[in-house]
Amino acid sequence: IVDAFDRGALIRSADGFWLAIPLAAAGARGAGGRRITPGGWEQRTGRRLRFVYRRGRPSLLVAEDARLNSRGLAAPKGGRRRRDGTLTGAQTVPVFLLVPQVKLAKRLDLGKAATAWQNRLAGLILANWPEGTRQ
Description:
Blueprint: H1 2-7, E1 10-12, E2 19-22, H2 38-45, E3 49-52, E4 59-68, E5 74-76, E6 91-99, E7 101-103, H3 110-127
Antiparallel strand pairs: 1-7, 2-6, 3-4, 4-5, 4-6
């Protein structure tokens, strides 16, 4: 992880398609405390996700006929259906953001810090050396 932030690494999907970044509506963790995945979310909730392509912007996986519950998670919308079959008050809730790749920002510069401490090391050793043992 430190090396990735030192270099500013590029992260791609293992199978070459999309990286699924969970939004707040997906929840923090999946089954067994592991990271949440689209398949795990569908399995946990019993609802299908729909792919939404957006030109020039990240694509989405959304839950249809859903709502945000009090914890901010996507939940099925219960309630009334109108005569035409549409659910009253239902929304389309984005659950995952899909991107082809992610470039980590270069947040660390270990080489610069190492050089700075290397230049200070000799002076720190001499400053903390016991007086009677100097020659």
